[in-house]
Every structure is written in C-alpha cells, then in structure tokens.
Design goal:
With about 375 residues, this protein is an alpha+beta fold. It is built from seven helices and 23 strands. Helix 1 crosses helix 6.
C-alpha cells in the first residue's frame, strides 16, 4: 500500500477532538462550564411491582416477589399466603429517578424501572404505585404507569432471540413530585461557582469575567474548581437574576493537553494543547500468515489399506523495512496530525507509538488509557 493511501486511511480512522484544530479557542458561557453551589440533582429510589407481564415475570422461587404481592393484596383486604401465589406475570423492580433542583410538587419527572428478580422481560408491564424516597427516608415522588421497553426477548425450546435489554424500562413523566428539596437561596450574601472540570486557569478567568461584569462582586478563585463572589446588595432578594447574568458570561476555558487511548476499539483522541518535541520514530511491521490444509491419501482398489488424512501447515513471516522517520517539533494540533500521518500506520499501531513517545519524554501532555 502506498504511503499516501495509508495516510488518508489513518486520517479517517483517528478521532481528533481538537476544538477547531489550529484555530484559537472560543469563549464558552459559564452555564456550560460550571454549576452554582446548592443547585444540584438529588437521587431518589423505591421498590415496586410490575404487573401484566406475559409469563416473563419472576419465578415462583423468588420469595420476595411473592411476599410483596401478598402484602399488596392484604392492603386490599385479600389475605392470601405467599406460598399460594403464582408470580410469572409479576416482577419485583427497583425504581430510580433524578430529582432536579427547584422542582415543585405536582411536577412530573422521568423514572427508570429495573428488574431485581429473575424476570426475563418487562415488556408490556405496568408499574404499580411506588413511593420514591431520598437518603433521608422521606417520600419525594410517587411513580406509576406503563413501561416503555426498548427491546424484547423471545425464548423457544431450542433457541432464543433478544434485542437490547428487556429487563430495564422507562416511564416518561412517570412520577409526580410530592415534596420539594429545600434550598436556601434568597438572602445569601455569598455565592460559589463550581467548575465541572477543575482548572486553575479557567477558575481565574471566570473570576475575572465576573469582576468585569459586576464590579461589586469581588469574585476570587478559592481553588481549581471553586470561585466565590459576594452577592451585591441589590441582588440578595432576587438571586435568580444574578445567576442568569453570571450564566451568560463568556469565558475562554483552558484544558490540560491529553491523549486518550481506547485500546478496546483502537480509538485515539488528541486534545488541542498536546505538543510533541523533535523525535525519531521507526515502526516495523511484522506479518505472520498461517495456512492450513489437509492431504487425503486413498488406498488402492480392492486393498485392505486405509484412507489417510495428512494435515499440512504453511507459515510465512514478513517484516517490513520501514526507515527511521524524524518528527519535527509540533506547536499546535495541526502539526501533530501531519507528523503522525507521515508515519503511515494504523490507529492500533499508533497506540504503541504514543506510549513509546511518552516514555521518551517527547509527548507534552497526559497520556490516558481507558
């Protein structure tokens, strides 16, 4: 294969997240970079039953499902022993949801329903009313409704077909919020901005942008992920307006140069700030080809001989004669891409080359293997 063809194939195979390649970084709103102290999602969970399954529910040996169904019927004035119940159309599930900040009673939220027994599919099931609690054991929402399962499982006597994951379902707006998470919001004298990706430079730039927009805020970075500011007196009883202004401030974030390698898929992601020092690279290719076959020898007619099967194996080993290639010092992502394409290797080989360049001290940036 020609060097040009290899370079084009390599360019198409490598995933390069470089924030506009060699162009300067653009400013991003604070809303995309950070959150505000106290404004967070809370997790709630509950235990419930899904009914109406077509024989794909839990097995009779699943004791907690039968006990739960017996308890449910008892609350409806039906006293039936757990041992007398069949639960093939019922499945025990865990219901989970994220409770957004500032959500009010009566609002609807999405829920995720996951089987915890030995049910084979939740398709066609309906979740019975389930209370969702937080870690404080308080009920924050009530869930109920028909499940939407993005898959199916069909089992026969000798074969089975399954698509996606049929033991997990979702109910869009399947829970009604009953309790609001208390957040002390109005009257605060200070406010903290939390960066999603901690970085000292970005924190300093956020503080600078806040001070330029609100001279009385006295914003200062506390560490790599926190910026604290004083709430001006005219905003203390109307903090939502202040946060709206802060969210729309434009800041140019800074990031650590990284090379992310996924060895399972052969994906290489190169960050914008990655740089290379001058280094010489020679990458040899070793090709091993094994061919196997059989040679059958038949005995002569009217003889007592036996048919002989003799296996034959042919092994060919070829090693490429690649020359030493000098990679010049790269100062931007565009130069890095050109230098790596000049080597003419596959992304899988590029993974080993990056590790070797890092070991030689010529890769200026973090090398992360996932």
């Amino acid at each position: 294969m020609k060097k040009t063809a290899i370079s084009l194939a390599l360019t198409a195979s490598i995933t390069l997240l470089a924030f506009l390649l060699s162009a300067p970084a653009e400013a991003i709103r604070v809303k995309e970079l950070a959150t505000f102290e106290g404004v967070r999602v809370n997790q709630i969970t509950g235990y419930g039953l899904v009914v109406g399954l077509n024989g794909t529910g839990d097995k009779d040996q699943t004791g907690f499902t039968r006990q739960s169904l017996s308890n449910l019927l008892k609350r409806m004035d039906l006293s039936i022993a757990p041992s007398a119940l069949k639960v093939k159309n019922v499945a025990a599930v865990m219901v989970t949801a994220d409770l957004p900040p500032f959500v009010k009673p009566g609002n609807k939220i999405d829920i995720l329903v996951s089987s915890i027994g030995d049910s084979t599919s939740l398709q066609g099931g309906t979740l019975l009313v389930t209370s969702l609690k937080g870690l404080d054991n308080q009920v924050y929402a009530m869930a109920q409704g028909p499940l939407s399962v993005g898959g199916f499982a069909i089992t026969g006597q000798a074969a089975s077909v399954q698509k996606n994951h049929p033991t997990v379902g979702r109910i869009v707006q399947g829970a009604t919020v009953e309790r609001e998470v208390p957040i002390r919001w109005q009257g605060k004298e200070s406010l903290s901005v939390k960066l999603s990706q901690p970085d000292f430079t970005t924190a300093a730039r956020v503080a600078e942008a806040i001070n330029e927009s609100l001279p009385g805020a006295a914003a200062k970075p506390l560490d790599a992920s926190s910026v604290e500011l004083t709430v001006p007196a005219n905003f203390r009883e109307n903090l939502a307006v202040l946060v709206a202004e802060l969210e729309n401030l434009n800041v140019e974030p800074d990031y650590v140069g990284k090379v992310i390698i996924d060895e399972r898929t052969g994906t290489v992601v190169i960050g914008e700030n990655v740089k290379l020092s001058t280094v010489a690279v020679a990458h040899g290719t070793l090709s091993v080809q094994i061919r196997e076959g059989v040679q059958v020898t038949q005995p002569g007619p009217f003889t007592d001989g036996e048919t002989m099967v003799n296996p034959e194996t042919e092994i060919n080993v070829e090693e490429g004669a690649d020359n030493l290639l000098l990679i010049e010092r790269s100062t931007n992502i565009n130069d890095v891409v050109k230098a790596l394409n000049a080597i003419g290797v596959t992304p899988r080989d590029l993974i080993m080359i990056f590790q070797a360049i890092k070991a030689a001290g010529a890769l200026h940036g973090e090398l992360e293997i996932i």
